Amino acid sequence: xxxxxxxLTPGDPNGIGPEITAQVLAEYAADDSQxxxxxxxxxxxxxxxxxxxxxxxxxxxxxxxxxxxxAGVIDVYDTGVLGDDLPEWGTVDARAGRAAVAAIExxxxxxxxxxxxGIVTGPINKEAIWAAGSEHLGHTEMLGALTGVSKQxxxxxxxxxxxxxxxxxxxxxxxxxxxxxxxxxxxxDNQADSIRRAHRALQVYGxxxxxxATAAINPHGGENGHFGTEEIEILRPAVERVNAEGLEVAxxxxxxxxxxxxxxxxxxxxxxxxxxxxxIAAKTFDFDGTISVTVGLPILRTSVDHGTAFDIAGQGIAxxxxxxxxxxxxLNYAPFADRIRAEYLPR
Length: 347
Hints:
This protein is an alpha/beta fold.
């Protein structure tokens, strides 16, 4: 795929999503090696362009195959939910939630139909989509329902690195639960399963012989049981099990070292044991360059990993760094779209 087409969903039209989407599309408008198309209400994208003071034309398209116009033009696949009656910037609004959901549905359908190589998603507001009638907890659950899969994993990709050309990948054994519940939920079987899924994801996304490490839970990796026994009773047996299966996995390694080692290039990926363990490591080192890839979907999906920032929406000051990184990542992974589909399409 020499010129991949990507569908960008800005998320909530009242947040910064349209602004950061417009910025990235404007930056790539002259690059004929790719074609990004926003999936949104055209009026919302025009409002964002005005807020930014961009000298670009917003062109409405009704096909994924439309020829790229080039510099000074950004394309929008108009969902037509809001029309010209836009809700106010920075407000939680059911109509805005409905517009965000519609864009996700259209873009996902295009990816499932192989009309686009993948989707890049901006931030939604959960309260707004719930007010619009959505029953999903968030983006990932919605995408799972739309693609027919029930199990997805988050893969963080850290764009910056301490080794040129290397990207660290972070996976999560547990995600959205309290720390106490997260630690109580980890056992040898699900730890080994998390390792297998992370290892396979690295292969699907282009690393043929991945080197994976698992992060320890306790300080100093438990100090041989003096600071906790999870490493001895759960994490080490899980690593030994998958190594016996032929996977190259190290650990558990103390978490104050393992993420730095991955950034140095020693490991391609790290399995974080709980949400903040991996989030803090990635975002402290490279907040704007850390993006999220949803693994387990039969489509390529990269995403920003920040919210709608209602407090600054419409002011033209939103930083597009994470959306830019998410877009670059999608372009990098686009050649693997067929492999992703073959691996994760429900059978």
